Amino acid sequence: MASAIDSNVGKDWDVRRLTGALGAEVRGLDLEKAGPAEADAIRDLMAEHLVLFFPEQHLTPDTHIAFGRLFGKLEAHPNLSLDAERPEFFELRAEGGSGAIADEWHSDLTCEEHPSVMAILHMVKCPPYGGDTMWANMYKAYEGLSAPMKELCEGLTALHDAHAHGKPENVAVHPVVRVHPVTGRKSLFVNEHFTRRIVEMGHRESEALLGFLTKWATQPDFTVRYHWTEGTIAMWDNRCTQHCVLSDFDGERVIQRVTVMGDEPEGVAPPRWAPHLKPFSAASRHDRQLKGYIDARFGND
Ligand SMILES: [Fe+2]
Questions:
Q1: How many A from CA of 270 to the centre of ligand 1?
Q2: What dihedral do alpha carbons 36, 185, 141, 151 form, nearest 10°?
């Protein structure tokens, strides 16, 4: 594989860091003409900045798909209707106030066993104001925790579901702290949109810890807020970031997106405790959901 280190590709790009936490704007290349060497240089920039913005690109659906394929196999989105001719490509139109935007903090599709690793988004139409997107750095969220909280979190897993998308039966369990397969760094991997229950804790303990962690993870010091212009391509690493759209706009906001297939999140070590289901609370949907998941996965003894 070509390596950015061995070539001059990317050396003349204008890379402007946006905040102390994450994010960079990149100019001086044409993504329609990008090949494996450019993809390698972009991967290096992604590892450093976690989310990249390429203004003034204006990709067509087909060049958008071709660019995405440089980074891996693309996947269909399980929660959205799709273009039959291009199942790996989708367009999302939102009207201000319609509620049809992802205005809760999340990493994409953590309700799946293999959450997507990367999203590549094309901002096609901006509202006249508002509709910015925020990202947060989950390496920083992990690294900022105290030593005892890090140790606790490293021994835990959490149940995620697609309840917010009307599919509560889509359930997956992931480590609360995951290890990035490329950088080897640890990041916090719970989010308010999909994460429902710490598996090894009781319902009320889980509510308290998830409430703390999801709020902690998205504090302003860990974030970047991006104001879009039409034709900008953004790409981000879902394994070490969360994002959230601000629902503060009027008018139409149109995005097009492709998603790179996921890997299985790997924890620091196997969970240190068994799932906690005693006392089982019939009032808790998440207890019932967790028991159903465990019965299906490991058998009901
Ligand atoms: Fe998203």
A1: 28
A2: 160
Backbone angle region of 149, left / alpha / beta, with phi > 0 → left and psi within -120 to 50 → alpha: alpha
Q: How far is the CA of 272 from the centre of ligand 1 (A)?
A: 30
Stronger pLDDT, 289 or 18, i.e. the higher one: 18
Residue 49 CB-density burial (10 A; 0-12 exposed, 13-18 middle, 19+ buried): buried
How confident is residue 301, by pLDDT bands cut at 50, 70 and 90? very low
* Domains of the chain with CATH codes: 4-264+277-298 (3.60.130.10)
266 residue type, one letter? E
Q: Could you give the dihedral angle defined by the CA atoms of residues 39, 43, 49 and 50, in that order, rounded to the nearest 10 degrees?
A: 110
Radius of gyration of the chain (CA): 20
Q: How many CB atoms lie within 10 A of CB 17?
A: 13
Both tokens of residue 188? 């916090």
CA 282, distance to chain mean position in Å, is 32
Query: What residues form DSSP beta bridges with 175?
Result: 157
Of the pLDDT bands very low, low, confident and very high (cuts 50, 70, 90), residue 85 is confident
Exposure b/e, 153-185, CB count within 10 A at least 16 = b: bbbbbbbbbbbebeeeebbbbbbbbbbbeebee
For residue range 140-151, what is the model confidence (pLDDT) as tens digits? Answer: 999 999 999 999
CA of 284 to the centre of ligand 1 (A): 27
Question: What average pLDDT does the structure give for the chain?
Answer: 90
Alpha carbon distance 261, 145 (integer Å) = 30
CA of 192 to the centre of ligand 1 (A): 12
* Catalytic sites, residue numbers: 106, 108, 243, 257
pTM of whole model > 0.90?
Answer: yes
